[in-house]
Design goal:
Blueprint: H1 2-17, H2 23-40, H3 50-72, H4 82-104, H5 107-118, H6 123-130, H7 134-152
Length: about 150
């Protein structure tokens, strides 16, 4: 149970970071979201949708915090380094999408992609480690990349 809550917290942080300017605001957004979740938990109709519900509450809370901070810094007086923070926010959003795509894959396919693209192993090295023909590795990578492209286009 504790692992599940920690995983939910981490997901909420990622959502918050994609909607605010800095980590402090993200943590504030998650804290406020937890308060809302705990006070409104009876409104959740389907318990298996808790993750999605928490992410929506977090995103809405983060957007509210972001709007409030925009009022604090009028357009001409932007917080120094705001551009960098906006770039990081977009980077977090992309990383979250990639993470969700990887989590949607079965564990073997996810491991294959991580070995190939994250750790930088060559196809032949993966094939030798998994004791399968290199053609099998190449075909799996090709099919998975094709499937991910289809999912990303939706």
């Amino acid at each position: 149970m504790e692992d599940k809550l920690l995983q939910l917290y981490n997901s909420m942080i990622v959502v918050a970071m994609s909607n605010v300017r800095n980590q402090s605001d993200a943590q504030d957004a998650v804290q406020e979201a937890w308060v809302r979740i705990l006070t409104k938990h009876r409104t959740l109709r389907e318990r298996d949708k808790l993750d999605a519900w928490a992410k929506v509450i977090t995103a809405n809370t983060a957007r509210t915090i972001n709007k409030q901070s925009r009022m604090t810094y009028p357009l001409g007086d932007r917080d120094p380094g705001a551009e960098e923070l906006y770039c990081r926010r977009d980077e977090h959003r992309i990383m979250m999408e990639i993470r969700e795509l990887l989590e949607s894959l079965d564990s073997r396919t996810r491991a294959l992609l991580l070995y190939k693209f994250y750790y930088g192993y060559r196809d032949q090295e993966i094939a030798a480690a998994w004791q399968v023909p290199i053609g099998t590795i190449k075909a799996r990578i090709h099919r998975t990349k094709h499937r991910l492209r289809q999912w990303m286009s939706y």
